[in-house]
Amino acid sequence: MPNETPPVIGYQQEFDLEIVVEKEVDGVGMGVLNDGTPFLNIRGLARMCGVDSAVIVRITNNWDDESAKPREKRIKEIIREQGFDTSVAFFAVVKDGTVNHAIPSHVCMAILEYYAFESNQGSRDQALKSYRVLAKKGLNDFVFAQVGYNPSGSVDISWRQFHDRVSLTADSAPDGYFSIFREIASLIVPMINAGISVGPKIVPDISVGQRWGKKWTAENLESVYGMRLKFEHNYPDYFPQALSNPQHPWCYPDDALAEFRSWLKKEYLKDFFPTYLNGQVKLGKLPAPVGAKMIASTKSKKTLGKL
User: Fold this and answer.
1) Per-chain mean pLDDT for the chain
2) Is 98 contained in some domain?
3) Residue 111 · residue 56 · CB < 8 Å
4) Residue 173 φ then ψ, to 5°
5) What is the Cα–Cα distance from 22 to 163, expressed in whole angstroms?
6) 2 part of a folded domain
7) What value does the mean pLDDT take over residues 282-292?
8) CB-hemisphere CA count at 13 Å for 54?
9) Which of 33, 42, 190, 192 is least surrounded, with the fewest CB atoms within 10 Å of its CB?
10) How far is CA 33 from the centre of its chain?
11) Mean of the pLDDT values across residues 21-39?
12) Looking at the 3D structure of the chain, how many domains does it have?
């Protein structure tokens, strides 16, 4: 979504908040933060209200002004009438080095209600139309549905991200070759089921690919199975890694598949996977109890037998 001119007050900058999914639908930018908060961006809300985005910027700029205009005071009254807090107009969330302005749903609905029923500024017809749509479904559910988010937890986001990657890599490796990502689905699925947010930050196929590549070179497996090849691999466009699409990882001859699977089960899972998970814990990407649970599960014969 495009960046907006940053409002200077009336916001809370949360460095522990992140955008987990976002999308632009009919010119309306929206998404969900990692705490489950649905939001619209400034231009998206302005479009729904039928006003210029500069109007929404002024509202947020004046949010904490004690001498605020009647407009801002009335919008805050609407928020309080709905039982919500008025201390924050939006969250400033850093993504890819830029600040994104996420206006939470209760603030969006209050501003939209104001322009639908009380203001003579902008297009009241547009605001009223938007309000009626959202009044039926609710802004939260509307955003969740549009961006494909299931609010029951981050695991659902991981499933979507996993399936999106699978879709993009379905036929990317040439015939007669296998890709690491496609082959380790048997590892990724248990990780997601264990509560690990496999996605842009936790990308296990990179770890597996690097370890397997070292084995391939050190043991000169090319002389046994033939040459490995580079192929085009793309991340979903909402992944930060997509900025450098297309990627060009290695794919390997199908003749080496049996050895790869044996190595994955007998060597990687036992010797390297715990190191990888502990590294994610140290980086703050993975809760320690979840990492420990996953490591313990990979040591069980039952789990290993499925891989």
Assistant:
1) 83
2) yes
3) yes
4) -75, 140
5) 16
6) no
7) 83
8) 1
9) 190
10) 8
11) 83
12) 2
